[in-house]
Amino acid sequence: MSFSQIILEWYGVHKRDLPWRTTINPYNIWLSEIMLQQTRVAQGIPYYNKFLEAFPTVHDLARAPEEKVLKLWQGLGYYSRARNLHTTAKIIVDTYSGEFPTTYKEVLTLKGIGDYTASAIVSICFNQPEPVVDGNVYRVLARYFGVDMPINSTSGIKYFKSLAREVMDIENIRDYNQGIMEFGAIQCAPKSPDCDVCPLNHACVALKEDRVRELPVKLKKAKIKSRYFNYLVFIDEHGKTLWEQRKGKGIWQNMYQFPLMETDQSVDVSKIRELAVKNIGVDVGRVTLYNTDVIIHKLSHQHLYTQFWVLESTTPLTNGISWQSIFDFPVPVLISDFIKTFKI
What is the pTM of this model? Predict the structure, then answer.
């Protein structure tokens, strides 16, 4: 039995009952694939269901205000995925009359869609013979064939794509692609795979050479940058606070937050008071550090050392908004966790 036949047979027995597997509608498949980038399946399912409830079709998503899209995405992280999703929905409606393009090359031109996502969409929805290569597929191929080429190098990406095309099942590409991804997620797992019951163990190079833990190989990431965030939580006598929208191309673009002062290192109360008066122009009375232990929020290339400072304004905040209203805005998970616990 060939490699692809084994994958298909295994998938027929072990595939999980996931909501997007009940359809080949490209809108649903696209949505699930974008959501599952950098997100575990268990975490992604509730978001997928909420999105479809709010935006049943690509037309609904295209018409939605960005703030609503970001609010529904809140907690998933990597918010550029949500913004690209929204932009692409508009393109599909305006350029393709709401009909998803059916070829790999056309799908690849859409914002936020790379090789893997384009291949997944056209193979699952339109039965096009395009191999998918995600983290799970890299792992299965690297271990089974004993490939130690870095999966995140230019040459490695090209090699694994070619290898995936060579071994794929053209006749049943829809199930095969889902099968090999599922196989990597469940059977050929990153840590502690159960090789004794693996249907590929008879010919797995990594198992034969005792290299399962070593493969796949990945180049080391760039150095992690440390940043120090100080959120200034102003409160006046009327229960109002100051609120702002993040601009620019940095993290959390267009999300909302308390005024943010970024410093070179952790600072004390006197420095926060000075920054509040100098940069915000608000006279403050008592200043309190809400979290005595620094919150370390880890992103892919940076760690945010975060402190929330509560500042009592001595005068009414003329540009302030009521505390209750801030719950309606899309916010980073850092802010969300804080406002759930802080009581004014």
Answer: 0.83
